[in-house]
Sequence to fold (154 residues):
Amino acid sequence: MKKRSRARGRKKEKQALLFIVAGAIALAAMAAAAILSHVGQEDQAFTVEVVPAALSQEGEAGAALFKVNCQVCHGPNAAGTKLGPPLVHDIYNPGHHSDEAFYLAAATGVRQHHWPYGDMPAQPQVAREEVSQIIRYIRELQEANGIVYKAHSM
Fold:
């Protein structure tokens, strides 16, 4: 009788060990999939083709400021890079992202919400008047590329 009891005990131990090993393998597989998924998103760049715009004087000033303060992430002509999204994109039409959204982004930063780039930090080195010129540049680029005001619907 004791032999059967010991045999049952060993069998239960083996089953428990097998269950633990299988669970560990499943968790490792899920973790690997999550890591690979995240790495793929970081490497993914959302860029667009941008038709250059004939810029106003304020738009030209904004282009110069954009190049110094924004281009490293948002790319030449605001077309996007691996570091930041394209601003010449319908998501940023004035009906969805008003000018005030751009002022707030520069002043306080932005939490990730449309793109897989992570949060945008505040840009305190850019004065509000400079942000106005950058917005003018972006809006002129958007208009030249067919992006106009559309009422935002939820």
User: Anything to note?
Assistant: The mean pLDDT is 85.
